[in-house]
Each structure stands twice: as C-alpha cells, then as structure tokens.
Amino acid sequence: MIAFVLRRLASAVPTLFIVVTISFFLMRFAPGGPFNLERPLPPATMENLVRTYQLDQPLWRQYVTYITNAVTGDFGPSYIYKDNSVAELIGKGLPYSIELGFYALLLALIGGVTMGTVAALRQNSALDFSIMSLATVGTTVPNFVVGPVLTLVFAIALSWLPAGGWGDGSLRFLILPMIALALPQLAVFARLTRGSMIEALHADHIRTARAYGLPARVVVVTHAMRGAMLPVVSYLAPCAAALLTGSAVVETIFTIPGVGRYFVLGAINRDYTLVMGTVILIAIFVIVFNLLVDILYGLLDPRVRHD
Amino acid sequence: MADKNETILAIRDLKVDFTTPDGTVNAVKGISLDVRAGETIAVVGESGSGKSQTMMGIMGLLASNGTVTGSAAYRGRELIGLRPSELNKVRGAKVTMIFQEPMTSLDPLYPVGRQIAEPIVHHRGGSYKEARKRVLELLELVGIPEPARRMDSYPHELSGGQRQRVMIAMALANDPDILIADEPTTALDVTIQAQILKLLRSLQERFGMAIVLITHDLGIVRHFAERVAVMRRGEVVEQGTTADIFERPTSDYTRMLLAAEPHGRKASPPDTAPIILEGRDVVVDYRIGGGLFSGGAALFRAVDRVTVRLREGQTIGIVGESGSGKSTLGRALLRLILGSGHYRFGSTDISGYDRSRMRPLRKAMQLVFQDPYGSLSPRQTVGEVITEGLLVHEPDLGKAERDRRAVAALKEVGLDPDARNRYPHEFSGGQRQRIAIARAMILKPKVVILDEPTSALDRSVQGQVIDLLRTLQDSHRLSYIFISHDLSVVRAMSDYVVVMKDGRIVEEGETDRIFEAPANAYTKALIGAAFHI
C-alpha cells in the first residue's frame, strides 16, 4: 500500500511537468500578450514592462526560468494584479473556494446518490421519472441561469437569504452558491448511481441474498449499494477537483473571493503566470484526488489490490 | 432418517407468467409436483421448459415482470402470496438454494466466511463473531482445504468448484429441509462436477434433506435422482421413478430426450490422406500484469510444446477442462494467436507468416465459436453476416452472385433462405449456430476449427448440429478440429482424440482406444467423471 502511494506520487512528477510544459507553450502561442490593452501603451512604457517581466528573452529561456522558479515555489508575479504574486492570490482565494466546494461536493454526493438509489429501486415509476427529469434539468440548465434565478427567488423576492458575498462566512451566505455549484454534479451522481444500482440489483449474488431470506434493507445496502458505488467513486476524483478549485461563473455571480475566476480572467488577459498557477493548482488537485479515490476503490473492492 | 412418504412441498397448479412488450409469456402452465422428505427429485427439461422458473416462483425470486399463481405448500404452509418478510423466514432457513453460476452467485466484495454467516445471523440471531465457529464447521463439512484461512478469502480467490462448495455450505447453514440445486454443476468441469455431486449425496445421507435437482443433463439424473419429473414448455410431461423414466418412458418427448445423447462414430481417414494442417512444437505464452510503473510481467505458458497433425477428412477432438489450453491451441494453429513453433498449411510453411500474409489463406481455414449469441453481430442481417467473408476473399463477386451463394449456404445448413433478411436475435440458439456454420461454409474452407460448437445448445439440438457437421464434412471433404469439454460429443464426432491438461498433451490416440482403454491417469479420471458419475 505504501509502495503503491509512493509509486503514484513519483509518477505525479512527470505528469505535472508535462502539464506545465504544454500549458506554458500553448499560452505563449496564443495571439496577444498581457500588455496589449484596448488603448495601446506608449512604446517606452511597453518596452519597460516587457523588460521588467523578462518577456524579451528567448522563449526557451523564459521556460527554463519559470520551471526553475516554480520548483522553489516561486510562481512569479501576476501581470494584471500587479501588487500580488500568483502564490499570494491563490493562497488568499483558495480557502473560500475549498469551503464552498466542499459543501457543494457533499450536497451533490449525498443528494445524487440518494436520488439515484431511490430511482433505481422504483425503476420506471413516476418517482423515477421525476428524479431523472430533475437530473436532466440539472445537467442542461447552465449555472449562469440557475444562479440568477436562485438569487431572484430566494434573495430578492422572498428575502430569505443574502444575494451574494461571503459575509461572516456563515452558512446563510453559502446556501445559494452551493446549490448553483452542486446542481450539475448532483445530476451526474444521480444518473450514475441509478444506472449502476439497476445493474447491481440484477446481479446473480443479489438473487442469492434474496434466496437466503435476507431483509430487503440488507440486500440493498450491504450487497447492491457497495458494488454500485464503484463507478460513483471513480467520478468522485474529477468532480472533487473541479468543485474545490472554484467556479468562475458561480464565484462571479455571488461575488465570492475564491480562485475560480482567476483561470478565466488570467486566460483572457494573457496573464501568463496566473494561468500557469491555476493550471498547476488544478493538476495537483486532480492527481491527489485520483490517488485518494484509487485507495478508496481498493478498500471497497477486494479484487483491486494495491500491492 | 426422514420418512420418504411424507410430502414436504406440495406444488399444485402452479403458474408463472411474464409480462413482456410482446404480450404475456406463460413460462409455467399449471404444474403439480410433490417433494417428499429426504428424497432426491430431478426436474429435467431443456432451456425454456420452465424448470428453473417453477422454483424461482416458489422462492419469490422471479424477475420484476413475473407473477406466480397457484399453490406451493411447505409442510402445510402456503408460500405463494406470502409477504416478503414472512417468506424470508422460510427461504434461506428451511428451503435453500444453490445456483448454476458459482462465479457470480457470491458477492465479490465480501469474504466467503461472512457470506455463509449472513443467513445464520439473520435466521438464528447472534453476532458474526459467534457464527464463525459454525462457518468453520460448514467449510470443513463441504471439504474446503484450510477452512480457517479460506473463510477470510474473497470469492475471486477461489476456484469454481470451491465456490460451489461455499454455496453448499451456505445452503446447509440452517439445517434445511429442502435444498434446491439449480443446474449446480453445469458450469463446472467434469471432474469437479463429479466431486460436487458426490458431496451433495454424502451430505444428504448425513443430514437427510430433500434435494430438488434442476438440470438438463440426463446423465446426472440417472445416477443421482430417485424420482424424475420431465418438463417441456411449462408443463410436466411425465413423472415417475428414475428407473421408470429411463427404462419405460411413456411420453414421446422423454423418449426423444433419452435418444438425444450423441451417437455414431467416425472412421479414420486413410493413412494416405495428406496432412492439411500441422503445428509442431506449438508454444503460446501469455503476459500477465506488467506496466509502466509496476515492474515486470509474469509469463503464463498456455500451450506447451504441442504437436498436432490434421489429415484431410480427419476430425481431431481436443478435450480438456477449462484452462487446459485447448482453445488457445486451436487459435494458434490458425495463426490467430502468434505462438512459436512450426506451422504448415497443406504444402505451405506458414511459420513466419504475419497477419497480412495469412489473409489470403484465411478463406480455407474457418472457425466456429461456442457462443451463438455473442459471435454474430446483432446489427447485421443474417445475409450480411454470412456474406461478409466473401467481400474480403472474393471481392469480384457481384451482388446477385453473393446473394446466390448466401441462399445456397443457408439451404446447406438447413435454414430457410429467407432468413438472410432477418436479424440474429430472431433465431434460436441452434439456428444461430447453423448461421455461424453457414458463415464458415460459404467460403468453401478446407479446415474448420469448431470451438465448443455444441456446448451452449440443448441435447436435442446438439444432435442435429452434430449431424449437420457430419454431412458437411462428407460432402466437402472437410477436416475438423473439434474442441470440447463434452466427451460424449467428442466421441461421436472425432476419429482421433487429443487430451490436454495444463497446456500439454497428456494422451492422444484413436478415439476408440482413448475411450475404451485410456492409459493416462488423468484421461481415466476424465472419462470416469463424464460417463460413470
């Protein structure tokens, strides 16, 4: 087990390196630059900026410098938020994104699995149909629609909850963005759970469990559900990485000071260092969660052993 | 000992219906049957006869579109229409079941000991810890080696035979009155099959439970059951003592079933017949595991220095249990798996041939598989399925000519030529196997490798397919390699037999010699298990 974790962590290094390299060059090959603004800067200022940020150096040297600095934890200054380094920006925003993402993940997982299980147990009933319709809505309606609608209803019309901001960080402020963030993932979990539950309930060993007079609760929870959770667990890794690293749309709508918007803003403004910082952040989250999920998978399914 | 005249399960006018999009299917049409204390009663029938669904209906295990009506009284207590919570007190305690699929009937995620303990805990109370002693006892009883260690094993760590023993342990856990065994040995190799049946019999002698044996295999019934009920299309056509059914059958269907055991022998081709396909010192290794970061892979030798020479007009039967390497050998001989060794097709040395150089020869060497359900594409019409090879091997043929060949091929295998416009799922298993044979025959091959071509078929259908294969062999001077674990079919079909075990040939010779005077201990065991259970 320890050997497995170490091996996986070792393989994470080349993975990260490849991700960083590809993003670095992709970003540089995109037209424009961080200082090409709508109103062009005076040539002298421009030259000054370019020299300060060493953008006049050959590309390969910039790359080497970036990698060398990144290894020591220096991800450079942001070109747009000039007073901050990328590390500072992410360090400040990440706790907000993680807290919101964690609640959204919890809601999506618990809500989705429950709904999916109920739908599977009542396959082809009206209840199944309504749950699956809801799941379709969850996947098809984008969160830039869900967000404002939630605000309109619960914050403005009913005045039950605040319309945005982090406030004192209490749950009241989190409820609406959490729902907007969780809804699409909840729909995916519900669909996945329903599908794998239906399959699990038709397995031969479920017939055995019923033939041996085990109560329905034991048949469903102990025997069907554990197997049915395997595909759900697999999806957990990309989902957790996506939710915990924030969402540009949801954070913008609800004015939450997380890191979600940096990726989009950085890309639009050719803020090379900021984009690279977010890419590395997301890559690390994906790698770590994939590892955690693989460990969890091994605990759930004895046929998958890590030794 | 139980009183064998006491009826403990009385089935009266039992019906099982399934609601399907095409209307209601009456799977069981009002049957009556008694199970007496301590007896072994066999319910025999081919697929679709309703033999399994009868028991599933009584045990409340029908699929969700199934309904059961009528009466089934266990010691005077009506089981049909019982609430699930009430039915749960009977099933798994007094009436237990074992199933055909030992591979999938156990939950892969829990240790076997825990699964055996589950019905004990649920029916008798107590904790899993307390149940461990009983589980250990049960595992010893069913002959699992090292039971104390094995109880913490997972199903995938056990062999098929061991898993079936675990199922039997589970079935015995609460001292049942009736043990329903639904094709308990069908998925197992013959030698394992004999062991499991012996175990069931000795357990019955010791504990005196009644056994209801559901099976399609008359060989098992004759040696195992005291009474037999023959089912066909949802009805019991005949029931009586085993002796009566086998010696004095009254219904035509029973007589047909009894006669359906494959018969006939094949004469050897003349010694002057040229060798058409040869593999010398065939070795096939499989890599197991291995990956970028997980270190080296292990090699598994599936076929170990095997030599086979097939003469024109000959049928070589390759027999062996699962994992013996017989299917791998068949594929290696056709160079579908690239093993090492020397290969010859007719006078051509094909040892070094790769895929593209093999392609022109493929027309003359065809393959028919076991599973008539999985080996035909469900998205192609039968006509497309059987003419696909012509598109590759005779691309100059016109559409009309291809169609003419398809009609001829279908007629030859005994199917209506109109079949070519329909899809495989519209045909029965036997018909699909005929389609698969037509697909091979349309190319006018010289060698056909038949990989368990009859194993998925009912006995009566099996006989017809064997007859067809024989006729085709005579009329086209075909050479067959007939791979099967079913010794009675091999005996009827082939003139030469190769017995394989663990990738090696343990014995080979003329069919009669092998079956009448086997020299090797393993061959003896195999034949003993197959013919004298």
Automatic annotation (TrEMBL), chain A:
Positions of transmembrane segments: 12-30, 100-121, 141-161, 173-192, 232-254, 274-300
Keywords assigned by UniProt, alphabetized: Cell membrane, Membrane, Transmembrane, Transmembrane helix, Transport
Protein origin, superkingdom: Bacteria
Membrane topology value: Multi-pass membrane protein
Keyword Transport on entry: yes
Domain ABC transmembrane type-1, residue spans: 94-297
Chief place where the protein resides: membrane
Pfam families: BPD_transp_1 (PF00528), BPD_transp_1_N (PF19300)
Entry-linked SUPFAM superfamilies: MetI-like
Gene3D superfamilies from the UniProt entry: MetI-like (1.10.3720.10)
CDD domains (alphabetical): TM_PBP2
GO cellular component, one term: plasma membrane
Subcellular location(s) per record: Cell membrane
Entry-linked InterPro entries: BPD_transp_1_N, MetI-like, MetI-like_sf
UniProt-listed GO biological process terms: transmembrane transport
Family according to the record: Belongs to the binding-protein-dependent transport system permease family.
Protein name: Oligopeptide transport system permease protein
From TrEMBL, chain B:
PROSITE patterns (UniProt xref): ABC_TRANSPORTER_1 (PS00211), ABC_TRANSPORTER_2 (PS50893)
Keywords: ATP-binding, Cell membrane, Membrane, Nucleotide-binding, Transport
Membrane topology reported for the UniProt record: Peripheral membrane protein
SUPFAM superfamilies: P-loop containing nucleoside triphosphate hydrolases (SSF52540)
GO cellular component: plasma membrane
Broad class of the protein's primary localization: membrane
GO molecular function annotation: ATP binding; ATP hydrolysis activity
GO biological-process terms attached to the record: peptide transport; transmembrane transport
ABC transporter domain residues: 11-258, 277-527
Pfam families: ABC_tran, oligo_HPY
InterPro entries listed in its UniProt record: AAA+_ATPase (IPR003593), ABC_Ni/Peptide_Import (IPR050388), ABC_transporter-like_ATP-bd (IPR003439), ABC_transporter-like_CS (IPR017871), Oligopep_ABC_C (IPR013563), P-loop_NTPase (IPR027417)
CDD domains: ABC_NikE_OppD_transporters
UniProt-annotated location(s): Cell inner membrane
Entry similarity comment: Belongs to the ABC transporter superfamily.
Protein name: Oligopeptide transport system ATP-binding protein
Lineage start: Bacteria, Pseudomonadati, Pseudomonadota, Alphaproteobacteria, Hyphomicrobiales
